[in-house]
Amino acid sequence: MSSVHKRPEAEEPAEEPVPQFPHANCVAVRVMANVLESTFGPRSRDKLVVNQVATQHEPENEGLPKMDDFTVANDGATLLNALPLEHPVAPIVTRILGPERPGETSVEGQDIPDGVSGGVILTGALLSNAEDLLELGLHSYDIRQGYAIALEQALSTLSAHSKPLSVFDDPAATAHAIARTAMTGNDIGGLADEWASLAVAAVDEIGRPTEETFSVRCLGEGSLSDSRLVHGAILDRNTRASDEMPRHVEEATVLLLDGHNSGGLQDPKWDENMVMQLESRSQLDDLDAHHAARRKAVVDHYVSLGVDVVITRLGISQEYQRLLADAGIMGIRGVSVLEMKQCARATGARLVRHPGDVSADDLGYAGSVSEVRIEPRRGRRKNRYMTVIDGCEGANGVAAEIHGVSGQPADQAATELRKAAAALAAARGEGGAKTGVVPGAGAIELTLASAVRGHAPQVSSRAQLAVEAFADALERTVAALIDNGGHDRLSVLANLHAARAGGDTEIGFVYPDGKISNAVDAGVLDPTDYKQRLLVTATEVADLILRVDDAIDATFSEEPAGPGDVIYEDRAENHLDYLEENPGTRWDR
Of the candidates 187, 177, 199, 185, which has an alpha carbon nearest to the alpha carbon of residue 438? Predict the structure, then answer.
């Protein structure tokens, strides 16, 4: 008898396991960290985020040209806003580590803190190390406890190595170094030193910069070297209401009319449902005469107060324009809410609600108010103008006038200049920030990692492993700094540890030379407040994600979320299969 040997049937490849909580969320954050990792440090690279390609997109309205929508940047905050993040955990990271943009004002770069990329990288490293510990059998509670212990030790060490600006021999040079360091890796035009000087001058004037006290206007004409600081405000898209008004006013007394309904110079509007019964034409003439007398009385009052410039939130009617021009007063209309506040900060004028209710105490001062022609607008015959309010004594608001940039580079330039000013203000303790600076170039991260690792043996529980993992995550940010410069991380880290063995905690990996040297002597300084916030927020995000064990879609309207509403579809299907096999565990019974 012959035997027939059947070929064994090929086994189907095993499906990859579906990431379970908290692994699924850890993976998502790691992906975000990987995207930003190459944008970290002086040798960072840009990212191209394409949201729309003209050849693949039809405009919603016919007649509109096809347009590309893309972002090129290496700023972490800008990229977090531009990336199409759809994972449920993404808003947690962007809300805590991303830029803060208060209100609805559209100010590019306003209140954008530095260190966003480093914060996301640290968060990703903490979660990556946490995954390894979970696979070893450590409970998420032990990991979170260990991270909390490590954070406390890191913050204590950070405070011990922080130095106030007053201890440096040359505080002015130190301030410049802080602003220059904040723009590391984003040196547009190679003029970071000049822009750092602008940032220092701005902070010297106003302290902590906000969207009201520090505005940045970018102009396409001229060159970057023509950039300057205006001691006042710049109205980018508002000019004289009439060509017959003065184009330039010296030693100007400024009036700001900001009422929502009455913040302009216009006659009262009639109600559309109003019915007026006139017995003769003379009554209508009397009404016109009344309004004319009212207009003249308002302008005559301004003349008696010595008003030279009137800036209004709303419009200026032709009748008022004529009266202002005859009186030699410059009128500027249609100014935005934010720019009205900027003018008030700069000139010291009060925002007046009613045009007829103006006193001398409401007026402000400017050394000059000028209408300035800038580059012609693309596709239009008319030139583009702006109004520059300069020379304001004791101004609580300044504006940076950046030349030679337009479009997206202008947005990035505004962001970097704001970051430089914000970093210096934080180092000085403005706005409640923690005063002081720490050495950059990875030096402080290595110091914190060493302190945390040395504290780990004192933790008499399994959380000790998480404390050591925290130290490893801190070194991950230094490794990213080294990798982006094209160096071998293992050899450089080994040499760094050897150089620091003598106890010099200011030794780091300093660019542009890419050498191991003293970061403070090289002028690489970071605000202590930024490093503290980075440590705290990264740990908080990691702790929050490690606490989550499931995600449920809460967008239901009438019925409560059932098993099928679980966000992760694979897990939902497994859950439904289990319920069908075990009907006694139905959630609705």
Answer: 177
